Amino acid sequence: IRLAQGYLEQQAGRDPVAAKHFQAILDLSNQHPDGLRALFQSWSHYALAEVHQESKPELARRHLRQLLDLKPGPEAENRARALLHSMDSSP
Asked: Taking the complete model, does pTM exceed 0.90, yes or no?
């Protein structure tokens, strides 16, 4: 529910509210370290990177590096690397 709500808030341009939902997913302490958790964490890190890309680029980069550390799979990793590359290439 938090992921969907975060995406809806992000689409509506309410990035601070969206960020709270994505961060809440990352802050869950009662989760087993399995593939499903890594998937939700990678989605949350990517969404937080998008939210902070313009206003806090270093925080966005940190989220992308944390996503890559999860090793969620080639699709998510390629997407994170592409966003990192575009951030590093822009003036």
From this structure: yes
